[in-house]
Amino acid sequence: MYEEIDLGAVEDGSLRQETGTAGSRQLSWRNTALKWFIDCITLGALFNTIAFLVLMGLMKGKVMSDVMNVVRKVSTSHFR
């Protein structure tokens, strides 16, 4: 799985990368799609929770300052 690297080649700068330089790496569509999906799950959960709290508060006739206090209370309780 791992290949051995000749340290002498590293020291004198003659070690070449087979995949090219760091700037010419190819985009991995699989990794990009997975990262996008995981980011959407994380941010989606946050936005859905906030939207739910705001809508439920407004439907119950609460003023926006009370709703925002509930959002702050819920969001800070999850990060402790």
Nutshell version of this structure?
It is built from three helices and no strands.
Please tag this protein with its features.
single chain, 80 residues, mainly alpha, 3 helices, elongated
What does this structure look like?
This protein has a domain at 29-80. The protein starts with 6 loop residues before the first helix and ends with a helix. It has helices at 7-12, 29-59, 64-77. Helix 2 packs across helix 3 (64-77). It is built from 3 helices and no strands.
Itemize the secondary structure elements and their pairings.
Elements: H1 7-12, H2 29-59, H3 64-77
The rough form would be described as elongated
Number of strands: 0
* Percentage of residues in helical conformation: 55-70%
Low-confidence stretches: none
Structural class, judged by helices and strands?
mainly alpha
Rg from C-alpha positions? 25 Å
What is the residue-mean pLDDT, rounded to a whole number? 79
Distance between the termini: 40 Å
What is the strand content?
Answer: under 5%
Largest sheet: none
- Topology as a string of helices (H) and strands (E): HHH
Number of helices: 3
